[in-house]
Design a protein that fits this description.
With 310 residues, the chain is α+β, with helices and mostly antiparallel strands. Helices cover 19% and strands 34% of the residues.
Length: 310
């Protein structure tokens, strides 16, 4: 079984919980998720199965879209509503929607974000949340993150609902905290829903109970997304049958080894298939060698389990 399942992570589960449950449902150990969601958060969590685990790191790098509710006037140690309250403030009477909007929009672009103590980042081999639970706080270096867009959907003070498009590594609860700090009121994240992660969106996601149903009905292929779908922005090449041994073993091959006509540019990436339409991997063209060079392989030794594409 190879492919990606667009899971809707429900509240109460950690991302690791989802993977563990899927191992039992799918009866396979080779599973990995593509970006942690906190237990109180919900939404899109693409999970890679089988050979698709090779793209986990690539999916983690993708931009994401979240819908969040920022609660002003309350600061917590976890920067979300589930944490210990550190400070509560009444909102100033002169705080209006325009002032709130202006401050929020100042965060669009690149800004230096200090990761929260309650996170899985490691310092000297220890996860920050483990130190935080012991009452230990360590200095964290600010890291550049990019807020590509903030769409303020509703303002009903002290709550603001907004959709945030951001780069990998962005902590939305920290963004909420930072906005509250800049407004002088304090703030924390009250709710979080991941709407999109790369090409995966919440409308096409399935819950764990749905996956179990598909397995019971022997229709899991209906929700198992083929690996090559992630690379549809690349042109495709089919290699002639007599050269299959080259691509099955991750070797270079020449332009005249392919069936379809292409005019490759230097450094251009391609989806590579054997003559039967089985997806083998990603190659790039090297003009200096006039050869296609392997970048990421998903088929080893000619043993293939499915997923034909053209």
């Amino acid at each position: 079984m190879d492919g990606i399942i667009n899971i809707y992570k429900e509240k109460g589960y950690t991302s690791h919980d989802v993977v563990a449950k899927l191992r039992g449902i799918l009866k396979t150990k080779k599973i990995g998720h593509t970006g942690t969601l906190d237990p109180d958060a919900e939404g899109v969590l693409p999970v890679c199965v089988g050979r698709a685990t090779k793209v986990c790191d690539m999916l983690t790098e993708k931009n994401k879209i979240y819908r969040t509710v920022l609660l002003l006037g309350k600061s917590t140690d976890t920067q979300d509503i589930s944490g210990k309250i550190l400070e509560e403030n009444e909102l100033p009477e002169n705080l209006d929607e325009e002032a709130v909007r202006n401050v929020i929009m100042e965060f669009v672009g690149e800004y230096m974000q200090i990761p929260p103590m309650y996170s899985a980042l490691k310092v000297n081999g220890k996860k920050l949340y483990e130190l935080a639970r012991q009452g230990v706080e360590v200095e964290r270096k600010a890291r550049p993150v990019t807020i590509l867009d903030i769409n303020i959907e509703k303002i009903e003070l002290p709550r603001i609902t907004m959709a945030v498009t951001c780069s990998k590594g962005t902590y939305i609860r920290t963004l909420c905290h930072d906005i509250g700090q800049k407004l002088g009121t304090g703030g924390c994240m009250e709710n979080l829903l991941r709407l999109e992660s790369g090409i995966f969106n919440v409308h096409d996601s399935v819950k764990l109970s749905d996956v179990q149903k598909y397995m019971d009905e022997n229709t899991i292929d209906n929700i198992l997304i083929p690996i090559d779908k992630l690379f549809m922005n690349y042109a495709s090449c089919k290699v002639k049958k007599k050269y299959n041994i080259l691509i099955y073993n991750g070797n270079k091959f020449a332009e005249d080894n392919i069936l379809n006509k292409v005019s490759p540019k230097d450094g251009e990436h391609f989806r590579i298939y054997d003559e039967d339409g089985n997806f083998v991997g990603i190659y790039k063209y090297d003009m200096s060698e006039t050869m296609f060079i392997p970048v990421k392989m998903f088929l080893a030794g000619g043993c293939y389990g499915g997923n034909k594409r053209n």
